[in-house]
Write a structure and sequence with these properties.
By secondary structure, the chain is an alpha/beta fold. It has helices at 35-46, 58-70, 85-99, 123-144, 170-190, 210-213, 216-225, 234-245, and strands spanning 26-29, 50-55, 75-79, 102-107, 148-157, 194-201, 256-259. The chain has 8 helices and 7 strands. Helix 1 (35-46) crosses helix 8 and helix 4 runs parallel beside helix 5. The protein is globular. The protein binds NADP nicotinamide-adenine-dinucleotide phosphate. NADP nicotinamide-adenine-dinucleotide phosphate is lined by residues 30-37, 55-57, 60, 80-83, 108-110, 132, 157, 159, 201, 203-204, 206-209.
Length: 267
Amino acid sequence: MCCFILSPRQCEPSYPNIGRRFEGKVALVTASTQGIGFSIAHRLGLEGASVIISSRRQKNVDDAVKKLKEEGIEVFGLVCHVSNAQHRKNLVDQTVQKYGKIDVVVSNAAANPSVDAILQMKESALDKLWEVNVKTAILLLQDVSPHLTKGSSIVFISSISAFQPPAGLAMYGVTKTALLGLTKALATELAPHTRVNCVAPGFVPTHFASYITNDETVRKSLEEQTSLKRLGTTEDMAATTAFLASDDASYITGETIVVAGGIPSRL
Ligand SMILES: NC(=O)c1ccc[n+]([C@@H]2O[C@H](COP(=O)([O-])OP(=O)(O)OC[C@H]3O[C@@H](n4cnc5c(N)ncnc54)[C@H](OP(=O)(O)O)[C@@H]3O)[C@@H](O)[C@H]2O)c1
């Protein structure tokens, strides 16, 4: 059943019990013109947030802004390649100029430039993995932190690969492991005004994962590894991210929630 405070067009079939937890809040989601980032922006927007979306390509930004606006979401789109310091500064400056504050940050950008084993990996690939997946998340938050409101919330998007980095995704997995540590460290550093948490998605058929999930045999084997016998959806990831970013999670900080259909992740 749809929530009565929403108009019928906001009653998304994928979110039957959606609320309005982000009314009056400003939410910045990186790498958010498609896939998991887009769904997170969509979910936060449907729940009342003003969302700032961004990615490397202007056309992708324009298309995503159009889709979100068509659903009545207050959205502001900018080009931001997370590795570009000027882009990051512009993203934060323009957000603060337009909305005056930042309540939620979802750090979602990642790269996986090589499937090489760690000891065979070129230095340039190692640099890119560290830079996009970890360092730029820190640098963006350095720019954002003066504008975070009391009660604000940060969510990192890690991966199930953080817990047991698989062959072909090994170094990528290690950078995602670093985000689990970063979550703990920043939760302490930013307490008590800002909570910092993390979502570790399982396998979700997006463009990023298409080289794995488009192969029928691999896809079936990934589905078999889950207890729920299916891959994740971008909406699954958005729902958990929205929970952690919301006041429903007001006593949770420094934690990672694995959203992987039951793929084992802990000791
Ligand atoms: N899909 C999975 O199975 C899976 C599993 C675990 C974790 N994750 C994590 O989930 C996050 C999102 O992945 P996804 O699967 O949703 O990917 P996706 O569908 O391929 O979307 C990637 C988004 O990021 C943007 N982007 C890429 N590189 C960027 C950069 N350097 N700076 C700014 N924006 C950039 C892309 O737009 P432009 O091309 O316009 O830049 C696009 O909007 C990543 O952190 C990934 O590690 C994914």
